[in-house]
């Protein structure tokens, strides 16, 4: 390990998930810091129209956040750590706030926590992760592991991931919120699944955020789930705005529409993301990237004029 790299075998990783050990070079529990995510991120060049309100609190949050699925699931070696630290540095320098992860994402929480520590935990960070286990007793262990890996004392938002054993975990999230351990509760879905069950939960359960899939192609949720969440005072986080990069690959074979250029977009990624975050009932979108230049592209969207309904409809006609 003389080159400064951190290595981990599968046994160590399994222990890590159970919260029983942390790796050399990764901040330990006694290095936990207060998460200063409360309050809006520094706006920088963000236009006010891209500062969305969290309905339950009125807190403002930038509309472009960052996901970590796949992109931060990398071995904790020096090169990928440095690259992802630079991605986060760009994110915060351009007004970013919400960071989204999950125990399901392999190394992602560990990598994220290490990078945040290297950046001295920017005060604008809004930490969001998930409980993802069918076993009720494992929920608190996952929560402790998440806190250790992120190196924070208070997570801003915790979801029940993909509705897994929500009956057991959602009440516990409410208890953690009441005690101040977390600030917001949520339910997440992805890939367009479990919509009927999610609709039922929005109608009868109490939580603050819902995460679901929404992009220029996958728009089923805008018909009823997104407006329903808004009607119930629930913030909406859009995952897969690029459909794991598939939309960028698909559309980049075509010329960028003239409308995109009129709106200030120089790439298909910006055009796709602008459509998502301009939905008036989307609170935050969480595109994932491992490249600093792509982070710059994403965050530049919040310097543009927000399209109105007529313009958004025109955008759809270009694809």
| CATH class identity | Alpha Beta
CATH superfamily placement: NADP-dependent oxidoreductase domain
Low-confidence stretches: 1-43
β-strand percent reads 5-15%
Largest sheet: 8 strands, parallel
Helix content class: 25-40%
> In angstroms, what is the radius of gyration?
19 Å
Q: Compute the number of strand runs.
A: 10
Instruction: Please provide the ordered H/E string of secondary-structure elements.
Output: HEEEHEHEHEHEHEHEHHHEHH
Give the N-to-C terminal Cα separation: 50 Å
Task: Report the CATH architecture.
Answer: Alpha-Beta Barrel
Globally, the shape reads globular
The domain count comes to 1
Structural class: alpha/beta
Please report the number of helical segments: 12
**Main sheet: strand order:** 3-4-5-6-7-8-9-10
Q: Quick check: average pLDDT?
A: 87
CATH topology: TIM Barrel
Task: Itemize the secondary structure elements and their pairings.
Layout: H1 10-17, E1 51-53, E2 60-62, E3 66-67, H2 78-93, E4 98-100, H3 108-118, E5 126-131, H4 138-150, E6 155-160, H5 166-179, E7 182-188, H6 195-204, E8 209-213, H7 225-231, E9 235-239, H8 246-251, H9 258-262, H10 268-277, E10 284-285, H11 292-300, H12 309-316
Parallel strand pairs: 3-4, 4-5, 5-6, 6-7, 7-8, 8-9, 9-10
Antiparallel strand pairs: 1-2
């Amino acid at each position: 390990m003389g080159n400064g790299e951190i290595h981990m075998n599968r046994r160590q990783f399994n222990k890590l998930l159970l919260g029983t050990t942390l790796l050399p070079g990764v901040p330990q529990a006694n290095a936990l810091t207060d998460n200063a995510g409360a309050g809006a991120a520094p706006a920088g060049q963000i236009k006010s129209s891209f500062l969305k309100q969290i309905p339950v609190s009125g807190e403002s949050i930038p509309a472009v956040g960052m996901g970590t699925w796949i992109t931060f699931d990398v071995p904790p070696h020096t090169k990928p750590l440095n690259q992802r630290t630079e991605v986060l540095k760009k994110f915060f320098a351009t007004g970013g706030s919400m960071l989204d992860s999950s125990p399901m994402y392999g190394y992602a929480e560990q990598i994220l926590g290490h990078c945040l520590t290297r950046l001295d935990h920017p005060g604008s960070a809004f930490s969001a992760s998930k409980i993802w286990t069918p076993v009720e007793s494992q929920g608190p262990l996952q929560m402790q592991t998440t806190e250790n890996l992120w190196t924070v004392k208070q997570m801003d938002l915790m979801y029940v991931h993909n509705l897994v054993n929500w009956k057991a975990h959602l009440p516990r999230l409410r208890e953690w919120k009441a005690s101040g351990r977390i600030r917001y509760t949520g339910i997440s879905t992805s890939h367009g699944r479990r919509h009927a069950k999610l609709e039922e939960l929005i109608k009868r359960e109490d939580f603050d955020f819902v995460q679901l899939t929404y992009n220029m192609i996958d728009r089923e949720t805008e018909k009823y789930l997104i407006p329903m969440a808004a009607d119930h005072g629930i913030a909406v986080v859009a995952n897969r705005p690029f459909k794991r990069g598939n939309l960028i690959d698909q559309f980049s074979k075509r010329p960028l529409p003239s409308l995109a250029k009129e709106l200030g977009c120089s790439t298909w990624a910006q055009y796709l993301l602008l459509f998502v975050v301009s939905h008036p009932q989307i609170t935050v979108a969480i595109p994932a990237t491992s490249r600093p230049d792509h982070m710059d592209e994403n965050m530049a969207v919040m310097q543009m004029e927000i399209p109105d309904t007529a313009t958004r409809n025109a955008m759809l006609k270009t694809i």
